Amino acid sequence: MTYRIGQGYDVHRLAEGETLWLGGVLIPHHKGTVAHSDGDVVIHAICDAMLGALKLRDIGTHFPDNAAEFKDIDSKILLKKSYELVKEKGYEIVNIDSTISAQQPKLLPYIPVMEQSMAEVLGIDVDQVSVKATTTEKLGFEGREEGMSVNAVVLLKKS
């Protein structure tokens, strides 16, 4: 196949005193994600989308959350390693599109920095990486600020 599409989804619980990493960027906020790694839901969803596009299972298969080597790991490392698996299969990224669902904090000022951060890790043009953010109008776990989720889609093409 010339083109492959993958979809990824990730959720993390939010708690006081934790750090909030999104798209490889530390976001100032009174709550952060609870996770084995740094809890970057954006990167985790994108990794799952890339891996899923090529039927390479999911991020937990390659980087298990019970493995000591991945405790508190910078998710940018997982992003790079996931893309290496994609390239080993002879594919490259056409584009990435992701949507963060979170009531707080307001993320608009950080989106360009997230896009640039991930583009640099992946070695692709920033125009190939899209991050959007939305609230859930105070509905659900995101609206109650108990957690946040991310949906991501990645289009790959044969190199």
TrEMBL record:
Kindly state which reaction or reactions the protein catalyses: 4-CDP-2-C-methyl-D-erythritol 2-phosphate = 2-C-methyl-D-erythritol 2,4-cyclic diphosphate + CMP
Gene3D superfamilies named in the record: 2-C-methyl-D-erythritol 2,4-cyclodiphosphate synthase
InterPro entries in the record, alphabetically? MECDP_synthase (IPR003526), MECDP_synthase_CS (IPR020555), MECDP_synthase_sf (IPR036571)
Which Pfam family, any one of them, does this sequence belong to? YgbB
PROSITE patterns attached here? ISPF
GO BP field = isopentenyl diphosphate biosynthetic process, methylerythritol 4-phosphate pathway; terpenoid biosynthetic process
Name the positions where 4-CDP-2-C-methyl-D-erythritol 2-phosphate binds.
10-12, 36-37, 58-60, 134-137, 141, 144
Any idea of its EC number? Answer: 4.6.1.12
One Gene Ontology term of the molecular function aspect? metal ion binding
Cofactor comment in the record? Answer: Binds 1 divalent metal cation per subunit.
Site description Transition state stabilizer, residues in chain: 36, 135
Cofactor(s), by name: a divalent metal cation
Q: What does this protein do?
A: Involved in the biosynthesis of isopentenyl diphosphate (IPP) and dimethylallyl diphosphate (DMAPP), two major building blocks of isoprenoid compounds. Catalyzes the conversion of 4-diphosphocytidyl-2-C-methyl-D-erythritol 2-phosphate (CDP-ME2P) to 2-C-methyl-D-erythritol 2,4-cyclodiphosphate (ME-CPP) with a corresponding release of cytidine 5-monophosphate (CMP).
- Spell out the NCBIfam families in the cross-references: ispF
How is this protein organized at the quaternary level?
Homotrimer.
Protein family: Belongs to the IspF family.
**Protein name per the record:** 2-C-methyl-D-erythritol 2,4-cyclodiphosphate synthase
* Originating species: Draconibacterium aestuarii
Task: Please name the gene that encodes this protein.
Answer: ispF
